[in-house]
Write the structure tokens for this entry.
Amino acid sequence: MITPSGLAETLLWGVANGCIYILLATGLSIIFGVMKLVNFAHGQLLMIGAYLAFTTSVILGVNSYLAILVAMVGVAIIGVAVERLTFRKVLGTEKLNEIFVSLGLIYIFENAAVLLWGNKSAQIPSSINGILSLAGISISYDRLAAIGIVVVILLSIVFLMKRTKIGLAMQATSQKSDAAKLMGINIEKVYVFTFALGAALAGAAGALYGIIFPFSPTLGALPTIKAFAIIILGGLGSIPGAVIGGLLYGIAETTAGYLLGGIWPDAIAFVLLIAVLIIKPTGLFGGKGE
Amino acid sequence: MQKKILVVITAIVVIVAITSAGVWQITQQPASSPSPTPTQTATPLASTTPSPDARPVRIGLVAGYQLAEGQDMDRAAKLAVEEINAAGGVYVAEWNTKVPIELIIADTGKDTAGETVGPITRAVVEDKVDLLIGGYTSAGTLAGQVVAIENRVPFIITGASSNLVTRRGPQGNFGGLAEDDARRINDAEGMSYMFHYCTTTSDYSTTVVNFFAETMKPLIDSTYHFAASRPLRLALIYRNDAFGKGVVADTKNLIITNNLPIEIVAERSYQTTATTFQTDLTVIKDAKPDAVYVVDFIANTAEIIKEGRKDVGLNTVYIAVECCEDPQFYTLLGEYGDGVLLESKFASYAGPPFYLPAIETYVANYKAKYNTLPGMMGADTYDAFYIAKEAIERAGTLDKAAIRDAIEQINMPQMLIMTKTGTIQFSTGVNYHEISPVTFVEQLTYNATLQEARPKIVYPSAVPVVGSIKQAEFVLPPGYQPGSP
């Protein structure tokens, strides 16, 4: 039975779920936009972020929302190590090399997580339990908090990209890396910062995911596929594209589940992706890159 | 330059170390002592000499180590092997000696259909196991058991609730499968090596629907002054795979066949990869059910109940199935476990005191060794090792056909899993090998000190042989909202 309140509630949940996708996809999009790097292990960074927040929150007793910061910093540091020790070595060589490095990283991250945290599902205990009910529509405070946090993070990203030296350097590198190098921009430093930033966003997405949903070491695979679908939908390398794509994907997923049943969300979301690609092959906000 | 080479070598060593520590097959020697030879561990008879051919009994454990249930099976198996070996091992008459059990681990990852054939083949072909024990998911077991069927290896299946694992051959009339169904096995002899020491989807659906008809319906009728003719409004939410669909089909069939006063008012399935269920729960809420039957494994079941209560505001009676009887389920549910029902056949949390003395000892030993309480999946596995020991001792040989015959004839007192006869016997009256386990319903109550819920058995009052097992009366959960009048 379809009811107006049920449908409204579903749309709101779609926005909340979409916000987590936005963070993951934005990180992936920034890395691709600046470094032209395809990282299939991006979802595993989300998983590591969830576990870091879990450990900080459960073992150290830190507020679950403060643990998001720890996850962001922790995953950013891991991102720096990954960029320097693996991707740096193959960047600019055959694309296949980058892809295989990222595929290898998937297994390394998953096995490392199993060794460190075990195979069992975990969930970060929320510091703000409860539901907001208004006009027959209810949503948990955690989902509302996720929406708010993602908005703050996205505004910070916009500020960083538009108003800071490193942000401008990233944009320049994204548009023409050779020209940026000639203008004195240290491309290697930009790459390290970009990868760390993308990883930190995945870490934040992981912590928010872990507050709302249970997770395990194998969490990363599906979110990675969804994040790729979102950045293709929004346009490769475009941050506004990742935001709009994430929202559309989240809403399409939950609405399909509500209207057609729980076995349809993934199929419908990918139908949306295919439709956009047929109508506009560069995605909603995609343009010609370097 | 040298520094760079050092960094690369260190990175490679770390990568190889981490990867090799993953989920590959592990072969483990019995107990804690290093590879005891038969003569070292043997307990020879006074008047005879042990045969020089004596060797350990090799038992393969089929378990998905990436699942909590698989880890529970592993712990239970190691505990049983340790106990049996500490008591001298398994007496093999043709060798005039007792030999230890050597545990061979067939790690099936997440126990999906694609993951079981390889590890079971290694255990059967390379490690030459005498017997297999385990199997968790129906899909994984149905795929992997073919190796045991073809190689004539006795397999005591301790998970996999689909009855096809024993009935898909000629003995079980091919489990009712269509003639062109690829799951049919036209190999009666091979299928005779399969033994199902576990409940089937039909077993636990019977308990669930009987509970609703006999206990819950009268309670809500009297509490809310519903007419006796009003059926109990039941909603079903299940994973869209053989397991979920099997339970739902059995539930509907039982309601119709027994003319039970239960109406299915909503039915929602979802992909096995789903992680969020609000939309399905919203549809269920709009159908105004009296109770929701959740058919999934631990993490998803806990998430469905939490989302239902926390996000959707569906304050109803939730009932979960027995594979959720695991410490992880209680941890994940937290406060949202209050009032939840759980169909089970082994209640390690509902005591002490326990309904069987054997459980008391098992729980204490398990807790002492692993610092956690055991789950249900391990209990079947633990029993199966003692069934294997008993069968080999009856057979007096490690000949696989003789072991199969001995398991067929086995008649030993029930251990951790209650049976309807009080004894462990496979399939009296039919040709396929199943046991008749007793299942029951527990209700959870939140304990603020533990920050987890704890169960008590609420249905049925008594079972054959054991007698009374009921520990508390079923109550409607706090804030319960009944369905439409």
Residues 4-118+127-279 of chain A form a domain with the ABC transporter involved in vitamin B12 uptake, BtuC fold (CATH 1.10.3470).
